[in-house]
Design goal:
By secondary structure, the chain is mainly beta. The chain has a single domain, classed as Leucine-rich repeat, LRR (right-handed beta-alpha superhelix) (Alpha-Beta Horseshoe). It is about 10% helix and about 15% strand. The chain is built from one helix and six strands, in the order H-E-E-E-E-E-E. The chain has a six-stranded mixed beta sheet, with no helix packed on it. It comes from marine sediment metagenome.
Length: about 160
């Protein structure tokens, strides 16, 4: 995203994108639709709709993302994120979180169970040893990806 671009986004969302670009040291391109394995963001109804920070070697979840209150889709394919912030549950419009192949993620914060719109949760390729039974509190969850983890126990649903 060039600093001179005007995407008709709220100022706070433009600032978040600029902060993220500074963090990863490259431009985040606008895409019609975000792809899980490509860097980019998409816009719907004058808000950031989707954000993919795939393959960015991030060790920490950029907290500025928590200011994208209308975010619906979030991809972090193949980074090294160990923890999601507790406040991720404040992104109440999220329908997709893809944290696959971060290789380090151990658990989810309790606030994830507040994401009642969530349809897709990608957690494959991490270090989960169990998943909370609270996953049943996500009424719209359609797809749950858990492959390639270290599970010792899976709850009965």
């Amino acid at each position: 995203m060039s600093k001179n671009q005007n995407y008709h986004l709220p100022q706070i969302e433009m600032e978040v994108l600029q902060e993220l670009e500074s963090t990863i040291n490259q431009t985040i391109p606008l895409m019609e639709t975000c792809k899980y394995d490509k860097l980019g963001f998409s816009i719907r109804n004058n808000h950031v709709f989707g954000l993919s920070l795939a393959h960015q070697k991030l060790n920490n979840f950029p907290k500025s993302i928590l200011r994208l209150k209308f975010l619906r889709e979030l991809w972090f394919l193949e980074n090294h994120i160990q923890h999601l912030p507790e406040k991720i549950g404040d992104l109440k419009y999220l329908i997709r979180i893809d944290m696959e192949n971060n290789f380090s993620l151990l658990n989810l914060p309790e606030s994830v169970w507040k994401l009642k719109e969530l349809e897709v949760l990608g957690l494959g390729g991490n270090k989960f040893s169990n998943i909370s039974e609270r996953i049943t509190e996500l009424p719209n969850l359609k797809y749950l990806f858990l492959e390639n983890n270290k599970f010792t126990k899976i709850p009965e649903f």
